[in-house]
From TrEMBL:
CC per GO annotation: plasma membrane
Swiss-Prot/TrEMBL keywords: Membrane, Transmembrane, Transmembrane helix
InterPro entries registered for this protein in UniProt: Acid_resist_chaperone_HdeD, DUF308_memb
Protein name: Acid-resistance membrane protein
PANTHER family reported for this sequence: PROTEIN HDED (PTHR34989:SF1)
Transmembrane segments: 31-52, 61-79, 85-108, 115-135, 141-167
Pfam families the UniProt entry points to: DUF308
Source lineage: Bacteria, Pseudomonadati, Pseudomonadota, Alphaproteobacteria, Rhodobacterales
Amino acid sequence: MKSWLILVIIGVVFALGGLVALANPFAASIAATTIVGFVFLFGGVVGLWMAFSDKEDRHRVWHGVVAIAAIIAGVFLVADPLSGMISLTLMLGLLFFVLGVARIIVALSMRGSPYLWVMILSGALSILIGVLVFIDFETAAGTLLGLLLGVELLVEAAAFITMGFAARRN
């Protein structure tokens, strides 16, 4: 099978996954939380192994502490994805809000730049998303992660399909 076709097929699979996530954002949120939990577990185990195996590392105790924290977070997310979904949504709401404020602060330092208003608009939209998460936290907790996952899968799908057709021309 040609590589361009493989890229297009991967893109189509991602698109289908994105549509499924958007059709059922609650299930996709639970799935995303579980995946994040396993990523934390994997990263924590690898980090702990590295902390114990690299005798030369001066910061290995701290690396071990961070690895143990990642393992604990991973166990928490995998064992109780519903509570983990709420925690992750809380962190995302705060992240959107803080990044929006930071983006506006950076924008204000760009006076005279043609991109000033784009940065201010981008920051304001991030703040709005953060505020919306907290205005209706119950709904956001059950859907936000799934919606973000669905949108990300659709964006990835577009990228893979585009790369596939670009590779076909070459």
